[in-house]
Amino acid sequence: MSIGKHSSARRERATPDYGSYGGEDGRVEWNGGADATDYFSARFCVFQSKAQNLTETKIAAEVLKKRKNSKGPVKLNDGVTEVLSSKGTYVVFRSHAFTGQKIKKLQGAIVADHT
């Protein structure tokens, strides 16, 4: 199955500096063809790879921009903002499996911190 006439994939280098790439380690995007495939749930997918054990606090900090001070509204990082505006998919993955319960807790932390 062709995913489109124009497709691209990009991999960013991993960096220990938290959030310097705006929440993106890689992406896949295409125009034309299928809206989704068996492997990609949208035409635009952003991937974030994490090596550490993710907690609710760490995942929330990952998808939110750092505040310069403690005042002002919380904003999503550039990668998540771009995904949402493109109706795409933001995927966070790591080298160790999580249970369904842990995944729900992490998803809940993201939603709670930006709504």
Task: Please provide a written account of the structure.
This protein has helices at 56-63, 78-85, 100-114; strands spanning 6-11, 26-31, 44-50, 89-94. It is an alpha+beta fold. The protein has one domain. The protein has a four-stranded mixed beta sheet. Helix 1 packs across helix 3. Residues 13-20 have low confidence and may be disordered.
Blueprint of the fold:
Elements (H helix, E strand, L loop, with lengths): L5 E6 L14 E6 L12 E7 L5 H8 L14 H8 L3 E6 L5 H15 L1
Parallel strand pairs: 3-4
Antiparallel strand pairs: 1-2, 2-3
Helix pairs in contact: 1-3
Sheet of most strands: 4 strands, mixed
Strand content: 15-25%
Strand order of the biggest β-sheet: 1-2-3-4
The helix content, as a percent range, equals 25-40%
Order of helices and strands: EEEHHEH
Structural class: alpha+beta
Number of domains: 1
Task: Summarize it.
The chain has 115 residues and is α+β, with helices and mostly antiparallel strands. The protein is built from 3 helices and 4 strands; from the N terminus they run βββααβα.
Tag the structure with descriptive keywords:
globular; 115 residues; 3 helices; single chain; four-stranded mixed sheet; alpha+beta
